[in-house]
Amino acid sequence: MKRKRIWVGLGVIVVLLVIFFSALLFIGRMTEQRRPFSFGDKIAIVEIKGIITQSTEIIEEMRQYADDETVKAVILRIDSPGGGVGPSQEIHREVVKLKTKKKVLASMGSVAASGGYYIACASDLIVANPGTITGSIGVVMEFTNLEELLKKIGVKGVVLKGGEHKDIGSPFREMTPGEKRIMQDVIDNVHQQFIKAVAEGRKMDQAKVVPVADGRIFTGEQAKQFGLVDEMGNLEDTVDMAARLVKIDGRPTVIYPRRKFTIWEMLAKEMASTVVESLHEKGIQLNYRLASPAD
Q1: Fewest beta carbons within 10 Å, which of 9, 121, 208, 257?
Q2: 62: how many CB neighbours lie within 10 A of its CB?
Q3: For residues 223 and 229, is the Cβ–Cβ distance under 8 A?
Q4: Could you tell me the mean pLDDT of each successive run of 10 residues in the chain, 295 residues long?
Q5: Could you count the other beta carbons within 10 Å of the beta carbon of residue 155?
Q6: Which residues sit opposite 73 in a β-bridge?
């Protein structure tokens, strides 16, 4: 009988734990989506932050909004210095497709350059702050030659290859003139793709894009003078512009970027909150401040 009660007790504990973690998982997913429980037309914001190394999550988010009939416009909030050519082009292509269903606006943060601008130029309207760093319409490929250094420390690199140019860019040797021409042709081709994307997205003649496509950066104010940006403003201004474009009356409902929480992060946050409250009850308060000489 005693053993039976133990097993029943363990069973109850297991059931309670399952319910507890299921509830945490549900709350985490609802927090991650951050979708407002409201009806009517909405404006969605997609964040593109940091170095662009992959496109999967951003494309998936844009496709969800493309299929949502209540979302009338999408704002790309770009705060990125650029990144990989492939991921930038994949997101750019998805923006072009999204434009066939929704109005797409780009809101530039502190920086939206190179690959960040590549993505922005596909949108219907580009909004930047006067001091936003943008432009950098160019392509760069860097190699390091360690041959002389390795000689000094007595290390010799050995490369076995199948194909004459398979080890182009090897750090063990200097590039030949022919190899440099090959790599320059690749860079020039990608650069022309960038120029074409800007010309098509901004509805400009390629001849007018070329002079500003030499890799230099611009402030948002300068970019507007060259036709690379449409309006000056912050994210909130962009939301208002989007609402006007799609004829939403009053303050629109905005779907902000999803923020992902794991169960453990939520538990840690709750534990930290409990500790801080306990310290406050005991008259101990934690502050972020600079120490004064009297301390």
Answers
A1: 9
A2: 22
A3: yes
A4: 63 70 57 51 94 94 93 96 95 97 97 97 97 95 89 88 91 92 95 97 96 96 97 96 92 77 55 55 44 40
A5: 10
A6: 43, 103
User: Which residue in this structure is represented by tokens 């297991």?
Assistant: 14
User: Residue 245 is encoded by which pair of tokens?
Assistant: 């474009």
Q: Which member of 49, 151, 166, 260 is catalytic? A: 166
Determine what percent of the chain falls in helix, strand and coil, rounding each to the nearest 5: 45, 15, 40
Cα–Cα dist 150/127, whole Å: 49
Task: Please identify which of the residues 107, 114, 123, 136 carries the catalytic annotation.
Answer: 114
The pair of structure tokens assigned to 276 is 């801080």
φ and ψ of 13, to 5 deg: -60, -45
How far is C-alpha 26 from the chain's CA centre?
26
* Tokens 């009297």 belong to residue: 294
Tokens 């702050």, located at residue: 129
Rounded Cα distance between 98 and 92, Å, is: 10
Confidence (pTM)? 0.75
The tokens describing 23, both together, are 């509830």
Looking at the DSSP bridge assignments, the partners of residue 106 are 76, 126
Active site annotation includes 136: no
The tokens describing 126, both together, are 């580009």
- The number of residues in the chain equals 295
Catalytic residue check, 114: yes
Helices (H) and strands (E) in the chain, counts: 10, 8
